[in-house]
Design goal:
By secondary structure, the protein is of the alpha/beta class. It contains 15 helices and 5 strands. It has a 5-stranded mixed beta sheet with strand order 2-1-3-4-5, sandwiched between helices.
Length: 382
C-alpha cells in the first residue's frame, strides 16, 4: 500500500505544480496551430485511402507447414513438387493438424498442408487422393498466389509409376482461407498503412514542433522559468500523444467504414499497444530534434530513417519476399512488430497470449528510445 500512496502523492503534486500550467500552455498552442491539426488529420486519411486501394506486391518464399501422415515416397514427391518453385519453403513439420492451425494463427506459417493416411493407397489404386490446405488469408495477395500455385502444381503432379495421363487426376486439394475468406487486398494493406502513417506523423510532428521551438527561442524562455527540463518535455509530449491516439481511432473507423475491415481483438489492449508504438514514434522525433538545427534538416533526416523502417516492416511487401539478411534485420524494426500486432488483432482476433513477444519488444524499444532521446534533449536544454 505504501508504493500506491507514494504514487498518488506524486501525481497529486505533479498536477498541483507548474507542470499543469505548462501542459495547458502546450494544449492552447497546439489548438491555435491549425496547420498542425491539419497535418495530424488530413494526410493520414488521404494516405490510408490511397495506399489501401493502390498497393499490390509480388511474393516468394512463403513458409509452408506440412502434417505428413504417410511418410512415404508419394508424400515426399508431393512436398517436393510444392517447394521446388521457391514460392513455398518447407518451414515446419507440426505433429498434428491442431498444431499446424496454431502456427498459421501465430503468423509463423502462410500455408499448411495435411496429407491424410490413405494418400498412398488411393494413389496406388489410381484413385484421386484429397489433401487439406490451410492458407492464411490476412495477406490476400499472398493467399491468392499461394492458392493459384497449389492448384496448378496439383493438376500437374504425377507420382512415380503412375500413368502419363491418369483419370481421374491423382490429387485434389480442399483449400480453406483463414481470417480473410474473400481475399480482399485492402485487408492486408490498410493495417500496414496504419503503422506507416503513424510512424511518419509521430516522428515528423514531434521533431518539427521541438525544432521550431528552438528556432523561435521559446525553449530558452521556458528554461528561464522555474520548470525543470523533464516537465517541459512531458508537457510537450502529452498533447501529441493524445492527438496521435486520435489518429489511431480515426484509422480504425476508416478501415471499418471504407474498406469493411473487421476488428476481432480487444479494443483496450489494441489502444494500449498502439500507445507504446506512439511513444516509439515520438522518441524518434525527439532524437531527430537533437541532431537537426532546422525544420528542413528534420524532413531530410526523417526521410533516411523512416524509409528503411517502412521498407523492412512488411507494411507494403511481405517480409517473406525479402532477402534473408533483411528478414533478420527487420526484427530490429519496431514498425514490423506493430504491424504484426495490428493485423493479428484486427483480422485474427488474437490477444496478448500470442502477441506478447511483439508487445514486449515494443515496450523495450519505447522505453529505451524515449529515455535516450529525452536524455539527449535535456542535455541540450541544460
Amino acid at each position: 500500500m505504501k508504493p500506491v500512496r507514494l504514487l498518488k502523492g506524486w501525481v497529486r503534486r505533479l498536477l498541483a505544480t507548474r507542470f499543469l500550467a505548462l501542459l495547458r500552455k502546450e494544449i492552447q498552442q497546439i489548438l491555435r496551430d491549425r496547420q498542425l491539426i491539419k497535418l495530424l488529420l488530413i494526410p493520414p486519411t488521404i494516405q490510408l485511402l490511397v495506399y489501401g486501394f493502390a498497393l499490390n506486391p509480388d511474393v516468394r518464399f512463403l513458409p509452408l507447414g506440412v502434417v505428413d501422415e504417410v511418410h512415404g515416397a508419394s508424400s515426399r514427391e508431393l512436398i517436393s513438387a510444392l517447394t521446388e518453385n521457391q514460392v513455398f519453403v518447407d518451414s515446419a513439420r507440426p505433429g498434428s493438424e491442431r498444431e499446424l492451425a496454431r502456427k498459421v494463427e501465430r503468423g509463423e506459417l502462410t500455408a499448411g498442408l495435411v496429407i491424410p493416411p490413405d494418400f498412398r493407397r488411393r494413389i496406388a489404386q489410381g484413385r484421386t487422393a484429397e489433401v487439406q490446405v490451410f492458407i492464411d488469408g490476412v495477406d490476400a495477395n499472398s493467399a491468392g498466389i499461394a492458392n493459384g500455385y497449389i492448384q496448378q502444381i496439383l493438376r500437374r503432379f504425377r507420382p512415380a509409376g503412375s500413368p502419363a495421363t491418369p483419370r481421374p487426376p491423382p490429387v485434389t486439394a480442399a483449400v480453406t482461407f483463414l481470417y480473410n475468406p474473400g481475399l480482399r487486398s485492402s485487408w492486408f494493406f490498410v493495417p500496414g498503412v496504419m503503422g506507416l502513417v503513424l510512424t511518419l506523423i509521430a516522428s515528423l510532428v514531434s521533431a518539427v514542433a521541438l525544432v521550431r521551438e528552438k528556432d523561435t527561442g521559446t525553449l530558452e524562455q521556458l528554461l528561464m522559468t522555474p520548470a525543470s527540463a523533464w516537465e517541459i518535455l512531458l508537457a510537450k509530449i502529452a498533447p501529441l500523444f493524445v492527438l496521435l491516439q486520435v489518429d489511431v481511432a480515426l484509422a480504425l473507423v476508416l478501415g471499418r467504414t471504407v474498406f469493411g475491415l473487421p476488428f476481432r481483438g480487444q479494443l483496450p489492449l489494441f489502444l494500449l499497444l498502439s500507445g507504446l508504438y506512439v511513444f516509439v514514434g515520438i522518441g524518434i522525433g525527439i532524437l531527430l530534434a537533437t541532431v537537426c538545427r532546422s525544420q528542413q534538416q528534420v524532413l531530410l533526416t526523417a526521410f533516411f530513417i523512416n524509409l528503411p523502417l517502412v521498407q523492412t516492416s512488411g507494411a507494403i511487401a511481405p517480409i517473406e519476399s525479402m532477402p534473408a539478411f533483411f528478414r533478420g534485420l527487420s526484427l530490429l524494426n519496431p514498425l514490423r512488430h506493430y504491424i504484426t500486432i495490428v493485423r493479428g488483432m484486427q483480422l485474427k482476433g488474437v490477444g496478448l497470449e500470442t502477441l506478447w513477444p511483439h508487445a514486449l519488444t515494443l515496450a523495450i524499444m519505447a522505453m529505451a528510445l524515449m529515455a535516450f532521446s529525452v536524455s539527449r534533449f535535456r542535455s541540450q536544454l541544460s
